[in-house]
Specification:
This protein is mainly α. The protein has one domain: Nitrile hydratase alpha /Thiocyanate hydrolase gamma (Nitrile Hydratase, Chain A, Alpha-Beta Complex). The chain has 11 helices and 4 strands; from the N terminus they run H-H-H-H-H-E-E-H-H-H-H-E-E-H-H. The strands form 2 sheets. It has a two-stranded parallel ribbon with strand order 1-4. A two-stranded parallel sheet has the order 2-3. Helix 8 crosses helix 9.
């Protein structure tokens, strides 16, 4: 189910996150001791998402969309098919939708029920994305949440919040920074951050890249 809301606060306190992490570690230990999981195999999977997938695939997708109008239209029409066509991966979630930021509308992604997230494109979800405060405040006070992340938008820019589900995931196509005319896709990709593809951040300033 998609939700459209205007305006948003966020971070969850450290004690709650620490308790969650401890519970996960305890569960992993029990499963490993019973032989149900192989810790080494899990480490390999996590390492792949952190260093090989991470937000790198998503950054390449965004850079391609910034550079290629035809691909951009294909991405906005059917993100899953467009990304698979690039050869970056064999499948992209169940149904991925790309939503475009414009001067008039800023998009932000949340999963209010759990933590559905397009791992194949953005890598491992950040801890704050899974936190209860983010999941509730993203809906009720999106502008406040963006302020927490250091993002200040013009007052006349609408904020739309998209609610991910197990069947439908979202990624944000951020606006291309000014002053990047003539840049290669590889160089453009260095400006794309994970948070800018979730909608809680903006691309890097070209002057700082």
């Amino acid at each position: 189910m998609m939700q459209n809301h205007e305006e948003h606060d966020h971070h969850e306190n450290g004690s709650e996150l620490s308790e969650m992490q401890l519970r996960v570690r305890a569960l992993e230990t029990v499963l490993a001791e019973k032989g149900y999981i192989d810790p080494a195999a899990i480490d390999v999977i996590i390492e792949a998402y952190e260093t090989k997938v991470g937000p790198h695939n998503g950054a390449r997708v965004v850079a391609k969309a910034w550079s290629d109008p035809v691909f951009k239209q294909a991405l906005l029409a059917n993100a899953s098919e467009a990304i698979v066509a690039l050869g970056l991966m064999n499948r992209v979630g169940d149904h991925l939708i790309a939503v475009e930021n414009t001067p008039r509308q800023h998009n932000m992604i949340v999963c209010t029920l759990c933590s559905c997230y397009p791992w194949e494109v953005l890598g491992l979800p950040p801890v704050w994305y899974k936190s209860a405060p983010y999941r509730s405040r993203a809906v009720n006070d999106p502008r406040g949440v963006l302020a927490d992340f250091g993002v200040a938008l013009p007052a006349d820019t609408a904020i739309r919040v998209w609610d991910s589900t197990a069947e439908t995931r979202f990624m944000v196509l951020p606006m291309r920074p000014a002053g990047t005319e003539g840049w290669s896709e590889e160089r453009l990709a260095t400006l794309v951050t994970r948070d800018s593809m979730v909608g809680t951040g903006l691309p890097k300033n070209p002057k700082d890249a």
